[in-house]
TrEMBL record:
A Pfam cross-reference name: M20_dimer
UniProt cross-references to SUPFAM superfamilies, sorted A to Z: Bacterial exopeptidase dimerisation domain, Zn-dependent exopeptidases
The UniProt record lists the keyword Hydrolase: yes
GO biological processes: proteolysis
Protein name: Acetylornithine deacetylase/Succinyl-diaminopimelate desuccinylase
Organism: Streptosporangium subroseum
GO molecular function, one term: peptidase activity
Keyword terms, alphabetized: Hydrolase, Metal-binding, Protease
Taxonomic placement: Bacteria, Bacillati, Actinomycetota, Actinomycetes, Streptosporangiales
Length: 461
């Protein structure tokens, strides 16, 4: 299928437009209501052809829109987000985080690859269809949220309340990076997530370490002992029940993973490490794609002054795989932690509100076939790799549960582009590659051998 749309703007024109979006510091964790609304309004203005509007929630607003002018055609729901991660240490940024900067063949700035750049691609494709053909090839609904980076806490209630309006035959996510820049890829799974704090409390207040040292339990010592006991020496999570429900990794799946070109030495060297480490009995790629994890993300207690802190907190996250249930994982960790009786302190486990199960889409799903064909069109002669997102996209399980629709990850972000880190960047070439691929995907889903069967759509009659 030949390209039919013309993307006539120059790269400079596209980047100037995207720069205005990146300049909005829409950090969902701590931005003002005005700032978040400003980002949402920027999106709504881009989707004026779809009757877009900014919709209030209990948290940051959503952007909704729909174009339903393709009678009998399938309906898709395009999902993405406009919020971004905090900048982290500004001293580690080479350029201002909320200023889009062209650096050779990449652009830099917070949100350029997660998820403002990938959403921008979709907007430009939709606009080109309307301007050049007067219509979209299929019915499209848009749902763009402002809380993905904090776990989408208010999205579930909204989706459940508006399920009929959001009904679709397929969700396509502009979020969810390709595996690596060396070949096109699609993700057929993403890991689930649970997060929690382990809190250890001693005395009623911080104590002078000279006057009281050696006479009271130190919460930092106790927390260190607890955290060290979360794993065995061979890298397995020590909590009984943590691995419940996970099927054995089949010989066939192991062979498939082993066949993926992967240079472990290059991976290790790229991280500045002398050696890799993880759960015994599995390769590095098997650990990334097929095994759950428990990571200590941070510690909070005292400081560089001579006190015995009265409280110490460890921040924990677990990435889950199919078969694990978030509530069971939390229970297993809680039981394990509380079973460690440490004198002189009180220990509490405080789970965060949201728990997300792992998500999968079959490799032979019609959407995967259509997306593979679209990528083969844009990257001729290259095989499309079926990969796994080791991170978590909270909305996927929600869409499947409430809307009965699978989610296709179709992002032109790449996993090495410093997502969530200082100096986030995106390859400029991905913008036009993504535009051509989204055009082909929509055409393939609308008609031909990869047509998506309309079931739940809600298009015009």
């Amino acid at each position: 299928m030949a390209d039919m749309l013309s993307f006539n703007s120059t790269d400079a024109e596209y980047l100037e437009e995207l720069a205005g979006y990146v300049a909005v510091p829409s950090v969902s964790r701590d931005a003002t209501e005005e700032t978040m609304r400003s980002a949402a309004e920027w999106l709504a203005a881009q989707l004026s052809f779809a009757g877009a509007r900014v919709v209030a929630t209990e948290g940051h607003p959503l952007v909704r829109g729909e174009w339903l002018g393709a009678p009998g055609a399938p309906t898709i729901l395009v999902y993405g987000h406009y919020d971004v991660q905090p900048t982290g240490d500004l001293a580690e940024w080479h350029t201002p985080p909320f200023e889009l900067v062209v650096d050779g063949d990449v652009i830099r700035g917070r949100g350029v690859t997660d998820d403002k750049g990938p959403v921008f691609i979709v907007l430009k494709v939709a606009q080109a269809f309307i301007e050049q053909e007067g219509a979209l090839p299929l019915n499209i609904k848009f749902l763009l949220e402002g809380e993905e980076e904090i776990g989408s806490p208010h999205l579930p209630a909204y989706v459940r309340e508006h399920a009929d309006e959001l009904a679709a035959d397929l969700v396509i996510s502009a979020d969810g990076a390709m595996w690596r820049p060396s070949e096109p890829s699609l993700s057929i799974a993403s890991k689930g997530l649970v997060t929690l704090d382990i809190e250890v409390t001693g005395a009623d207040a911080d104590l002078h370490s000279g006057r009281f040292g050696g006479t009271v339990a130190n919460p930092v010592h106790a927390l260190s002992e607890i955290l060290a006991g979360l794993h065995t020496a061979d890298g397995r999570v020590a909590a009984d029940g943590f691995y419940d429900g996970i099927p054995e990794l089949s010989d066939e799946r192991r062979a498939d993973i082993a066949a993926v070109p992967f240079d472990e030495d290059r991976y290790r060297e790229g991280l500045g490490l002398d050696e890799v480490f993880g759960e015994a009995g599995y390769s590095t790629l098997e650990r990334l794609w097929e095994r759950p994890t428990l990571e200590i993300n941070g510690l909070r207690a005292g400081g560089k002054y001579t006190v015995i802190p009265h409280i110490a907190t460890g921040h924990i996250s677990c990435r889950l795989v199919p078969g694990q249930r978030p509530e069971r994982v939390l229970a297993a960790i809680t039981d394990h932690v509380l079973a460690q009786k440490i004198p002189g302190v009180r220990v509490a486990v405080r789970p965060d509100e949201a728990g997300v199960p792992a998500y999968t889409i079959p490799a032979d799903h019609p959407a995967i076939r259509a997306a593979s064909a679209a990528l083969e069109h844009v990257y001729p002669g290259q095989d499309v790799l079926l990969a796994v997102i080791a991170g978590t996209l909270p909305a996927t399980a929600l869409f499947e549960e409430v809307l009965g629709a699978k989610t296709l990850f179709f992002s032109f972000s790449t996993a090495d582009e410093n997502l969530h880190a200082p100096n986030e960047f995106m390859r400029i070439s991905r913008l036009r590659e993504g535009m051509r691929a989204w055009e082909q995907l929509w055409r393939l889903l609308a008609d031909g051998p990869h047509r998506l069967a309309p079931v739940r759509g809600g298009g015009a009659a």
